[in-house]
Specification:
The protein is about 35% helix and about 30% strand. By secondary structure, it is α+β, with helices and mostly antiparallel strands.
Length: about 110
């Protein structure tokens, strides 16, 4: 199962995420759920880097099957907010289509410094 934690700040704006695991919907190389989630996550990270001025930290740990991404900018720009909203919409769509057996999404308030 893919576990995704979406982080929100005190204003309920998405400010990061952590994804870990594999969907195990199909065998390796044919798993459309893993592919869909991977494309959404990596595209969001790349888009925030290319199209916004927001500062962030991100890491991909292939051997641990973990991707983490956190915006450091406060406030989050409107562009980054839109891109993260789009990510959440896409992930919720995958979950709706394929079920919570393959992808679980939870939301967590992030402590602000």
């Amino acid at each position: 199962m893919i576990n995704v934690t979406i982080y929100q700040n005190s204003r309920d704006v998405y400010c990061g995420f952590r994804m870990e695991g594999h969907a195990e919907y199909a065998e390796y190389g044919s798993d459309i759920v893993c592919s869909a989630v991977s494309v959404l996550v990596i595209n969001t990270m790349n888009s925030i880097e290319k199209f916004t001025e927001d500062k962030f930290e991100g890491a991909v740990h292939q051997e641990k099957d973990v991707v983490s991404f956190n915006l450091l900018s406060n406030p989050v720009s409107a562009s980054a907010e839109l891109l993260l909203n789009s990510l959440v919409l896409g992930l919720e769509g995958v979950q709706s289509e394929y079920g919570k057996k393959y992808i679980k999404i939870k939301y967590k308030r992030k402590q602000e410094v």
